[in-house]
User: Fold these one by one.
Assistant:
Number 1:
Amino acid sequence: MGFDTVITNGTIVTAVDTYAADIALTNGKIAAIGKDLPTQNANAVIDARGRLIMPGGIDVHTHLDMPFGGTTSADDFETGTRAAAFGGTTTLIDFAIQYKGQTLRKAFDTWMNKAAGKAVCDYAFHCIMTDVSGGQLSEMNDLVGEGVTSFKLFMAYPGVFMLDDGSIFKALQTTSKNGALVCMHAENGSAIDVIVQQALAEGKKAPKYHALTRPTTAEAEATARAIALAEMAGAPIYIVHLSCNDALEKVREARDRGLPVYAETCPQYLYLSIDNFDVPGFEGAKYVFTPPLREKWHQEKLWNGLQRDHLQVVSTDHCPFCFKEQKELGKDDFTKIPNGGPGVEHRMSLIYSGGVAAGRFSANRFVELVATAPAKLFGLYPRKGTIAVGSDADIVIFDPQRKHTISAKTHHMRVDYSMFEGIEITGMPHVVLSRGRVLMQADRFVGRAGQGEFLRRATYTQVNG
Ligand code: URP
Ligand code: ZN
Ligand code: ZN
């Protein structure tokens, strides 16, 4: 009996190593790594000459089929995971939302149903908690038992998602005991609401006012408060979609003190800026998401944070709404524009391009940011996030030279615009495998809806720092 698949002639890149070797895959796992592995009895041989072999990407922040802002995000679990696969991402962690008065179980069941039979690659869930006034705190332990080992809390969106500090503190006390990780949307929602109401009263209703009413100080203040609450509770904390240097400084200071504080940023904050709102008419709505785009100088600070491990993860916060009919809900009032942008397809290439090809950090650091650290922090390592014997055969054969210009005309996300339209990237996935099965090869999708599995995650493990 031979191997199912042997990948030959490639260069393996993990978070810690770069070396030439063949990889053999059997029963969805990596079965062997070595020089000149036997290919004669293999069902398939893939020649990876000139290409990098990396673990499949893990995007820990997506919103597929999510009701929000009076509509529902445009990608469901089939179209969203398919687009992810085109971009080399083979695991998503999405968010199951507990609405006020509901149990956490209800949220989990609802989102399991949304994904079942649709996802083309593996997926897991965080649970968004909007109400802890019932039995939800003790229910957090039940969800951890189901493999939902992280909880997103909001310090923004008063009346919708926002929790008060006492509730947040109680949730953190619970995770300090059950080993789960709180993911925090850190913006001071109460102060922002005042600024928003004042802007509306002054007739400032265009899309750019979404950004102008959410100052960086509101993000920095909430980030510092979240860290303080976590420190008091003795719990780790993970700051989601960090967008600006002010908040980054708070994370860096906490990590310098040795606290288990982690943060992610997203490609939009690395590539786009408030200047993107300088477009005609209502076009700026394409860039309405939260936290908003910042002044351009923040971008290099964030790249630097990724390089120095002040930031540990790049996710996308993929939350697509079509410009026509969805973003247009806010044509006369920016507060009615559904918040979110599409990005799941291009995370790997944007970060490889701006990080490795541009000389900011190594290919190993790239792998750490997009796969290994996400796997460790969210309880998937070493099943996911690395190339090792026994790990799932989630593999990207990546062409580091290939150039591509991003466009809505060619992307695979179910949305009618791209935030990154016209940006040229260097480095593209050539073949993408999920548990040993080819999902995408040479720009052709060959996977199947429903072949993705729900991942029961372990609790978080610390990453270096
Ligand atoms: O604007 C955004 N980010 N939409 C998705 C919800 C969230 O806060 O992550
Ligand atoms: Zn958020
Ligand atoms: Zn989000």
Number 2:
Amino acid sequence: MDSLVIQGGMKLRGSIAVNGAKNAALPIMAAALLSDEPSLIRGVPDLQDVRSQIALLTGLGAAVLRQKDGALEIRVRDQSQSHAPYDLVRKMRAGICVLGPLLARRGRARVSMPGGCAIGDRPVDLHLRGLAALGARIRLANGDIVATAKRLRGAEIFLGGNFGSTVLGTANVMCAATLARGQTVIEGAACEPETVDLANYLNAMGARITGQGTPRLIIEGVRELHGCEYRVIPDRIEAGTFLVAAAISRGELRLQNVRLDHLVAVIDKLRQIGVRVEKCNGGVHVAAPQRLQPGTITTQPYPGFPTDLQAQFMALLALAHGNSIITEKIFPDRFLHVAELARLGARVHREGATVMVEGQPKLIAAPVMASDLRASAALVLAGLAAQGVTVVHRVYHIDRGYERIEKRLNQAGARIQRVDQAETE
Ligand code: EPU
């Protein structure tokens, strides 16, 4: 198991290219199961979660090929399998995305029920309610969701839950509805850019979806979908993580392959706390201020501030001049990074779904433990700023969502070394 050894205090300078979005690529890859013709998907990052999704699709009869130019070709060869086993779904929750496509195309799906994970319970009740409204019969057997339907039929479905819309639930129901008989209207749909990207990909395959990017999706069912070529959007969470990296290291970076329109809430927050963010040729330029102001952050569904950047901003605000308040409204238990940031000297006080961050002039290096993907990113960011050498253990979490993060940060002046964990114990 690898660890990252981070020499703190290096100012980042230079330029980093942002990769294609993991959370757009994973549901798009699953949606390729809806057609017998090949999809050529560009901009899919080379990540552990993508490799897990490839293993899952391969087990479901797809031939998945990474071409020389990096594009991913997915071609369904065998429709006889419809079981997504526990071993694969437990590693990566986006495995649940095959449920809707399998059900719509093969008439049956058996997908292991994802359990809880480091960021909370993460139920799938809304996914199942949506599919049931389309006419699927759904039961639970030995920990698996078993869904069957001859042909799904369009319906009006409300997908809002107690914590707002559901991103992957919308993906599952939208995919299933593309091949249903008649019209489906999804109210309370997720508006995230990744959901829009999936709808655009499905339309490129011949689906008839309108309303993407709004809470009301209208899907006219079609008999079949064809192959297509598609490029996934840039990763707004990776971009946000690098913006914080520049700010926390008191450096200056230019990011390429960025969609600023996907980062409005994030950039607004950075500017409020004093970080300079400016559009520049083909990207964005970010520069840290002398003094970081404190701020108030509440995570919300898009276009609000994303939960996937909450931990990274907590690391940044730990160094602000004053007290900040961070409230998590999507995953109220997504705070495993709090205790680890405290080990680096951050003054963080949690009360339920809110954390008060008492800004400090400095953080001091320490060994820390990564617990989930974004928490790990926050620890790496804190390590960039901390005085001394921080060791982040169990970085396999970070490899799930960031491609070679240490190499890319090092190219911009960071000093991060990847070592086998045994060497640091
Ligand atoms: N929820 C329900 N019932 C459901 C589904 C969700 O109550 O059936 C609740 C969840 O518990 C949560 C809220 O609704 O409180 C929103 O969850 P959502 O379903 O939108 O999350 P998700 O689709 O499982 C995706 C991303 C997450 C990201 C969330 C929120 C992927 C692969 N995952 O998860 O990304 O945090 O949307 O934006 O797209 C990450 O990349 O680190 C990550 C965790």
Number 3:
Amino acid sequence: MANTVLIGSQWGDEGKGKIIDVIAPHHQWVVRYQGGNNAGHTVEIGDQRYVLHLLPSGILRDGCQCVIGNGVVIDPAALEKEIDEVEASGIITIGRLFVSDRAHMIMPYHCLIDSSREGRAADKEKIGTTKRGIGPTYADKASRVGLRIGDMLEPDFADLVAARVRENNQVLAALDAPQVDEQECVARYVALAARLKPYIADTIKLLNDADAREEAILFEGAQGVMLDLDYGTYPFVTSSSASAGGACTGSGVPPHRIAKVIGVIKAYTTRVGEGPFPTELHDESGESLRKAGNEFGATTGRPRRCGWFDAVVGRYAAMVNGIDYWALTKMDVLDQQAKIPICVAYECDGERIETVPASVRAYARCRPVYEEMPGWQSDTTEIERLEDLPDAAKRYMARLEELTGVPVGIVSVGPKRHSTFVIDSVCKFRT
Ligand code: GDP
């Protein structure tokens, strides 16, 4: 069994897309299991740059089968657009892409409810959502009033959509938000159902059958553990299980079939949107990380907040996900730093604490306790072998391993496939 879960171990944008693309050839299946088109993976292959929001990154690899699992929420129009885009660059999706019939469907009223709530919230209560209807769709799922992708195959699908639109127009009226045109929405969703029908499948059976045949499955997490609905900085979180546990509930593959968990972690920290972030830098060090790391959101273009590596977050991510090894990305972004602080603990209300507190208010009062490592001040982006990394970079990596209790298995020093080193003694495959 070689089934792997790969997750973001900070606040997302760790470079998961690139690592997945590098390890995808060792797997026959790549599965998205949570979130929606609020995720944004960037993958560079040769001169082509792909930004994928909903499609698993494995779609860019011939011979890889891709699944959008039951834990994902799907905007069918966004899915259609993304399929059109990758097909335009010659990638075949029919027979390779399977969409769970149990995945919930984002409707136009979800997006309107999302924007209306976020727009009306007082500044300090804004969650920083992407306003793509993800949260309200998960809320409908939990309230048992959602529409699922499988409903598209039912003869009364048009009636189901019409009934939901009428009901939600009342909610929209109460929020003073624009109404959804019932007829237009029904016509659009019926057309989308016809377009997406060839992709809709019982992906639970498909994946378990593949697993029984010993085909390796890679589960692709979106966002990161600090944005997980349960473990993150609630309420400044996403509305799904971005941690390793979500891979099982979001795909129907049982926990004992997962062989390992890879945590993707940046050599520093970033966060998009609102919410506390203890190591955030408000000075020119933050600006230099943002510039060197090109830290602007793949989905929204928003500048990301930047700060030093937070080992408390790393330890916490390792604990709740059972991380076997890190894929440490963006080491090159630190190339020019003379000194590199690492947050080893927090100080909160006069006490030293070693883990992430539940209360977002307490977390906002946490101040980082730093230790400092010397930088390497040389260009790592052209390095082609792990051995050639500067000694100071190797010492920095070793310290992160020590502080988090997890070995580094993959190191990345640039956006391209070849700027990735696999440490054979930790990983059991080669790229
Ligand atoms: P994801 O959502 O976790 O996949 O992360 P994003 O795609 O939003 O952001 C990662 C960005 O960093 C992308 O533009 C990648 O091409 C880029 N990237 C990935 N790994 C590295 C690296 O090691 N160094 C540099 N400089 N960029 C990287």
Number 4:
Amino acid sequence: MRTQVAIIGAGPAGLMLGRLLELAGIEAVIIERRSADYVLSRIRAGVLEQGSMALMDRAGVSSRMHKQGLLHEGIELSFDGERHRIDFSALIGRQVMVYGQTEMTRDLMDARAASGALTIYEADDVQLHDFDGATPHVTYRRNGVTQRLDCAVIAGCDGYHGISRQSVPQQALTTFERVYPFGWLGVLVDQPPVAHELIYAHHERGFALCSMRSPSRSRYYVQVPADEQVAAWSDQRFWDELRLRLDPQTAASLVTGPAIEKSIAPLRSFVAEPLRFGALFLAGDAAHIVPPTGAKGLNLAMSDVGSLADALIEWFVEHSPAGINAYSTQVLQRIWKAERFSWWMTSLLHTFPETGPFGRRIQRAEFDYLRGSLAAQQSLAENYVGLE
Ligand code: FAS
Ligand code: PHB
């Protein structure tokens, strides 16, 4: 089998890239390790930047997002029970959209299925070959039979644990990583959100986040030690701990219920450089990871594939290599700005026992500065809604 672009991974990055290429008349085959149902079962991001919303419009898959998504004009920061609202609209005239990654992935999957473009699910032992040579190709095993897909370009959209980045010779890659000493225990519950907007709470017991998926479905997180086990957290223990980390008024308004999903996500900052190796291009979590505190992970993946699609369209349609040659440098500049903001939000809002009382005083000063400075609030706002 032969195609123009072999995309590894049918997460949001792979599906969005496939859609943008298809609309430009460029053929792409997506090879995914898991089943479509498994991909949809993963509960992940919840907030879209305007750039991601625009990409959904460009991909022609945004009607449900505009109908069901919740436009948010700000967020609340809570510091030891004191709340301060960051008003995006007043500060920078822009907003974000609350629309779950699961729904976005479903929209992209449905569009791909409707167009008949090929996605190979449940592909085992995916291997990348000769992406630095004349015959780039991918092999995989399905139903026990090994298949080969020849292509001109391979797009590695297979996430942090994928095969693409691991296929690059060690000496050709430089990685930068910070692993945080904690994770996020997340709960999904079919109850109305505790507030109209997201609440990011810093408390001496640890960070908490009150988010949502719809007016009737909420998403909550608490910071837990990096080695914490989900089994140690009954629903009741989660709700009790969450209340302790919120201001009294919010804690009293919390509507709890049985968790329909409960999981722990580790937190790390990670970047691989460069993002291109001959015919192989890395995008999304395959290239970088951010702690979810800044709501950047999914949005960064979207901006990567928006740039990669433009570069590949320029290459295949206009036969100009300018975009593909500039891809890595251009996209890494944006990645590092998102890494910085996600690290900063994480440093501000989580407890770091190792930094002791001095560290907490610095966090308090940072919050007081934010509360009193329009410039500081504008900086947070423009980073959160997405740098243009
Ligand atoms: P993905 O990991 O989503 O998709 C990669 C795909 O490649 C997967 O379907 C995988 O099965 C497939 N794959 C892997 N190896 C393969 C192989 N060898 N062959 C073929 N296919 C292979 N971001 C936020 O903005 N906010 C959040 O709250 C948030 N929460 C998160 C919670 C968790 C537990 C995790 C892990 C991430 C979270 N993220 C969050 C980040 C997340 O949303 C990612 O940024 C987003 O999924 C990136 O999309 P992709 O790059 O497509 O990678
Ligand atoms: C979520 O709703 O899952 C969510 C929202 C904002 C974040 C992280 C996660 O920063």
